[in-house]
C-alpha cells in the first residue's frame, strides 16, 4: 500500500483549485506551487501550504520537474497530483517522483510513455483488438515513407504528430499535391511543441463525432468505464463544448465502446483515471484515436451523470486501494454539458488575450457548477493557457441541461478582458447543436467566419450613457466642499443633460441624456426617445434599470478611459464614449474635446459652431460650488460641435465643445 497524508498539486488555475478541494475533503494536507505571476492566485490561497517554484515562464516553473520535486521535499509532501497539461503526461517526471519516494497520482511511467506516442499506442491497440482508423504508423517514418504510404491510406487524411496532442502538429490533407507541404509543416510544429517530429497518417473522418470513454484502473487488475463524453464541438482540434452522455449513444453501442476502452486500459495494466478517445462514424462504427493518461478538462460532466468524485477515486487508487465501484454499479443519470470560458479575442481569429479581470461573477443556480481559478482584479497573463473557467450545467435530460447552461452563461460576468462568452452562447443557441446533431465539422460549417460580432442595441448605448453620467456625477460630488444644494448647483427645476458618442457598425451614434428627476432620465438617439428609470440595485457592480418599461439587472464595470463594459439582458457590450476617451477626463485636452471639470451650470458659452479659435481662447464658463471655471481651447481649429446650452446643468466629464483641427 502506498500510504500518504499530503498532496502537492503540480499545477495552477482551476484544476489546481479543483484537486485541492477534493484532497482537503478527504483529509489530506494540500500544497500548492506557484510562479511569480501566480503569487496571489486563488489556488495558492486554497492550499494549506504554498511553495514558490520560479519566475512566470512555464519552463522555469511549472514545467521544471526538479523545482517541483524540491518543493515537495521542502514541505514533506507524500504524493504529487499533476492535474492536466504541464507534467501530467511526462513519463520522466512520473519516474522521478517514484525514485524520490513520492507517489505519482497517475499511471505508471511505462503506460504514459507508451500511450504518449500515437504510433506506438495505435500498434498496441491493434494487438489488443481495439478498432483503429486505417492509417500508417510505422516508427520513425521519414517523409518518403509517409508519401509512399498515403495512397494506401486514402484521402482525405490526417497528418498527426506521434507525440503530444491539443491539435498541434496536425494537418488535414484533402488531395495528394498538398501532402508534402503538410508533412513539412506538421513535423516542424511537432518538433517545436513536443521535441519529436515523428508523424503518422490516418484516414480522415470529416463528419464523425469525437466520443471519449472515461476509464479507471487499480493496482489489483480491476478496470471499469464510467460512460462516455461527446466532445465533437471543436475549434482547430481543441474542444469547446463537452457533454455526457453522447446524444446519439445507444445502450448497445455504449457497452461495445466501453468494452473496447476497458480492453485498451487492461492491455497496458493501466492504473488511475484515463480517457480513451474514439471517432464515431455515422454508421455506428468507431475507431481508436488516442489515450490521455490523466484527468481530463471535461471530467466534471462525467461526475455530474455518475455522482462520483473522480479526484477522490484517483486518490483512493493511488494509495493502493481497490476500486470502490464495479462496472455493474456504474449508473448514468441525467445529462451534463460543459463549456470552456477562454480569455481570447474572438473577433481576431480567437487569439489568446490578456488583461485584468475588472469584474468576475461566476453564475449560480440549480444544476450549475463553475470550476475556476480566477479572482476579481486578477491579471490573466500571456504565460499560461487562456482558459479561465469551465461552466457546467446538469439536469434530468439534455434540454434542461442546455437551457440551464444558456441561462448560466447569460448571467456570467467577466469584464476587463476579451472572452469567448458570446461565442459560446452562439454555439449553444445554434439549432444544429440544440438538436444534438453536431459533429467535428460543426464550427467550420456553422461559424465559417468565426464568432459573429455582438449586436449593439439602443438599450446598450442608453445604459452606457447613464452609467457614465452617474460615474461623472459621483466623481463631481466627491469633490464637493459643502453639502449646501446651492453650492452644488442643484437648486431649481433645471433639467440636467449630457451627450455621449459611441461607435456602432462603423458609425457614430450620439446619445443625449437628460435627467428628469432623481431616478428618471430621458435618452435620445436620433429620432428615438427612451425613458430610463433606476430601481434599487441588487448588488455592487449592478444597476436595476427600466428602459421604456422593460426592467432588467445590468452588470457593469468601468474598464478604461471613457469605456464601460455592461450586459443588457445577458448580451455583453464594451462601449467607449469617443469624446470622453479623447478627453481622457481632462477639462481641456490637446485633441479638441473640451469637457466639464465637474457637475455644474453652464454659465456662459462664448463660441458657436463654425467659429475659428486659437489655443488659449476662452470658450465657456461653468459655475460649480460657487466658483467659475473658465474653459479654454488647447488647439487651433474650428468649433465643430457644441453639446450644451447656457443655463443647462452639465455633468462632470461631459464633452461640451469639439474643435476640429486643420490636421
UniProtKB/TrEMBL annotation:
Span of domain Lipoyl-binding: 583-660
ATP-grasp domain residues: 122-319
Record's keyword terms, sorted: ATP-binding, Biotin, Ligase, Nucleotide-binding, Transit peptide
Domain of life: Bacteria
One term of GO molecular function: metal ion binding
Domain Biotin carboxylation: 3-448
Pathway entry: Lipid metabolism; malonyl-CoA biosynthesis; malonyl-CoA from acetyl-CoA: step 1/1
Reaction(s) catalysed by this chain's protein: N(6)-biotinyl-L-lysyl-[protein] + hydrogencarbonate + ATP = N(6)-carboxybiotinyl-L-lysyl-[protein] + ADP + phosphate + H(+)
Database matches in InterPro entries: ATP-grasp (IPR011761), BC-like_N (IPR005481), Biotin_BS (IPR001882), Biotin_carboxylase_complex (IPR050856), Biotin_carboxylation_dom (IPR011764), Biotin_COase_C (IPR005482), Biotin_lipoyl (IPR000089), CPAse_ATP-bd (IPR005479)
Cytoplasm is among the record's keywords: no
Required co-factors: biotin
PROSITE patterns per record: ATP_GRASP, BC, BIOTIN, BIOTINYL_LIPOYL, CPSASE_1, CPSASE_2
Pfam families for this protein: Biotin_carb_C (PF02785), Biotin_carb_N (PF00289), Biotin_lipoyl (PF00364), CPSase_L_D2 (PF02786)
Assembly: Acetyl-CoA carboxylase is a heterohexamer of biotin carboxyl carrier protein, biotin carboxylase and the two subunits of carboxyl transferase in a 2:2 complex.
Function field: This protein is a component of the acetyl coenzyme A carboxylase complex; first, biotin carboxylase catalyzes the carboxylation of the carrier protein and then the transcarboxylase transfers the carboxyl group to form malonyl-CoA.
Name by which UniProt lists this protein: Biotin carboxylase
Amino acid at each position: 500500500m502506498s500510504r500518504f497524508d499530503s498532496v502537492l498539486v503540480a499545477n495552477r488555475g482551476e484544476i489546481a483549485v479543483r484537486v485541492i478541494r477534493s484532497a482537503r475533503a478527504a483529509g489530506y494536507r494540500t500544497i500548492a506551487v506557484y510562479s511569480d505571476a501566480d503569487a496571489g492566485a486563488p489556488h495558492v490561497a486554497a492550499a494549506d501550504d504554498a511553495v514558490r517554484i520560479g519566475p512566470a515562464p512555464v519552463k522555469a516553473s511549472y514545467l521544471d520537474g526538479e523545482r517541483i520535486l524540491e518543493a515537495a521535499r521542502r514541505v514533506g509532501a507524500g504524493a504529487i497530483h499533476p492535474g492536466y497539461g504541464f507534467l501530467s503526461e511526462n513519463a520522466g517526471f512520473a519516474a522521478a517522483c517514484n525514485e524520490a519516494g513520492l507517489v505519482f497520482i497517475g499511471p505508471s511511467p511505462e503506460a504514459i510513455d507508451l500511450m504518449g506516442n500515437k504510433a506506438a499506442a495505435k500498434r498496441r491497440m491493434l494487438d489488443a483488438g481495439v478498432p483503429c482508423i486505417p492509417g500508417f504508423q510505422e516508427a520513425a517514418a521519414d517523409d518518403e515513407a509517409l508519401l509512399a504510404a498515403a495512397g494506401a491510406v486514402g484521402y482525405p487524411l490526417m497528418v498527426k504528430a506521434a507525440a503530444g496532442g491539443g491539435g498541434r502538429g496536425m494537418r488535414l490533407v484533402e488531395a495528394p499535391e498538398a501532402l508534402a507541404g503538410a508533412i513539412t509543416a506538421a513535423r516542424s510544429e511537432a518538433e517545436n511543441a513536443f521535441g519529436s517530429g515523428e508523424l503518422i497518417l490516418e484516414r480522415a473522418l470529416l463528419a464523425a463525432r469525437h466520443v471519449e470513454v472515461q476509464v479507471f484502473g487499480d493496482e489489483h487488475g480491476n478496470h471499469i468505464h464510467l460512460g462516455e463524453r461527446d466532445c465533437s464541438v471543436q475549434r482547430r482540434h481543441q474542444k469547446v463544448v463537452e457533454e455526457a452522455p453522447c446524444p446519439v449513444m445507444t445502450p448497445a453501442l455504449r457497452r461495445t465502446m466501453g468494452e473496447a476502452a476497458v480492453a485498451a486500459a487492461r492491455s497496458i495494466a493501466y492504473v488511475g483515471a484515463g480517457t480513451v478517445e474514439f471517432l464515431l462514424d455515422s454508421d455506428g462504427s468507431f475507431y481508436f484515436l488516442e489515450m490521455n493518461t490523466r484527468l481530463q478538462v471535461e471530467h466534471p460532466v462525467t461526475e455530474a451523470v455518475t455522482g462520483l468524485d473522480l479526484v477522490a477515486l484517483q486518490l483512493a487508487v493511488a494509495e493502493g486501494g481497490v476500486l470502490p465501484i464495479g462496472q455493474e454499479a456504474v449508473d448514468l443519470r441525467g445529462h451534463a454539458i460543459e463549456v470552456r470560458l477562454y480569455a481570447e479575442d474572438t473577433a481576431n481569429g480567437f487569439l489568446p488575450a490578456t488583461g485584468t479581470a475588472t469584474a468576475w461573477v461566476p453564475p449560480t443556480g440549480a444544476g450549475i457548477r463553475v470550476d475556476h481559478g480566477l479572482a476579481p482584479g486578477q491579471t490573466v497573463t500571456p504565460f499560461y493557457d487562456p482558459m479561465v473557467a469551465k461552466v457546467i450545467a446538469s439536469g434530468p435530460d439534455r434540454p434542461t441541461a442546455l437551457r440551464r447552461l444558456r441561462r448560466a452563461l447569460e448571467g456570467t460576468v467577466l469584464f476587463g478582458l476579451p472572452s469567448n462568452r458570446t461565442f459560446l452562447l452562439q454555439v449553444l443557441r445554434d439549432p444544429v447543436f440544440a438538436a444534438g446533431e453536431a459533429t467535428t465539422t460543426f464550427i467550420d460549417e456553422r461559424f465559417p467566419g468565426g464568432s459573429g460580432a455582438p449586436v449593439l442595441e439602443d438599450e446598450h448605448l442608453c445604459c452606457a450613457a447613464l452609467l457614465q453620467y452617474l460615474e461623472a456625477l459621483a466623481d463631481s460630488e466627491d469633490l464637493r466642499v459643502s453639502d449646501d444644494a446651492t453650492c452644488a448647483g442643484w437648486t431649481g427645476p433645471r433639467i440636467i443633460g449630457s451627450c455621449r458618442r459611441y461607435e456602432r457598425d462603423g458609425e457614430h451614434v450620439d446619445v443625449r441624456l437628460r435627467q428628469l428627476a432623481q431616478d428618471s432620465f430621458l435618452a435620445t438617439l436620433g429620432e428615438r426617445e427612451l425613458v430610463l428609470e433606476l430601481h434599487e440595485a441588487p448588488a455592487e457592480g449592478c444597476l436595476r434599470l427600466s428602459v421604456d418599461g422593460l426592467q432588467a439587472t445590468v452588470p457593469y464595470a468601468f474598464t478604461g478611459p471613457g469605456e464601460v463594459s455592461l450586459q443588457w439582458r445577458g448580451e455583453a457590450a464594451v462601449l467607449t464614449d469617443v469624446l470622453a476617451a479623447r478627453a481622457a477626463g481632462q477639462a481641456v485636452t490637446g485633441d479638441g474635446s473640451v469637457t466639464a471639470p465637474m457637475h455644474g451650470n453652464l454659465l456662459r458659452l462664448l463660441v458657436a459652431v463654425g467659429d475659428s479659435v486659437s489655443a488659449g481662447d476662452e470658450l465657456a464658463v461653468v459655475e460649480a460650488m460657487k466658483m467659475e471655471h473658465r474653459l479654454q481651447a488647447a488647439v487651433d481649429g474650428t468649433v465643430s460641435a457644441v453639446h450644451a446650452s447656457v443655463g443647462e446643468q452639465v455633468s462632470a466629464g461631459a464633452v461640451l465643445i469639439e474643435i476640429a483641427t486643420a490636421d
